[in-house]
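Hey, sorry to bother you again with one of my protein questions. A protein chain has come my way and I'm curious about its shape. I'm sending you its amino acid sequence along with the backbone structure tokens. I owe you a coffee for this, so here goes:
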Amino acid sequence: QVQLVESGGGLVQAGGSLRLSCVVSGRTFSNYPMGWFRQAPGKEREFVAGINWSGSRTYYKDSVKGRFTIDRDNAKNTVYLQMNSLNPEDTAVYYCATASRAFITIPTMPRVDEYEYWGQGTQVTVSS
């Protein structure tokens, strides 16, 4: 049984930082790309950042480039999302997801249907 458990969300003031973690169990973590998505109330789930199996390639939503960093520790079965310079528009539930196959291209990394398993989400709230 594959499980993804996110942590690290919370309430932060604009300009602040948070570091999200996602621990994966039940599959060979290092074989698969990982992604972070978010969903704000009344909006569709959107891609935030993705990382390939080794961590050598990353991809970001334009609005978070330069502020967010995704990385992974394959020895710990964990993917991280460091979020700096947060603003109220970043408020959402953040989800990690593991891809359904080992190799996905950068252009398709933002697609929800590229991911097979999802965590339960962690709330991030940024106050102005």
Remarks:
- Residues 79 and 100 are 16 Å apart (CA to CA).
- The longest strand covers residues 18-25.
- The radius of gyration is 13 Å.
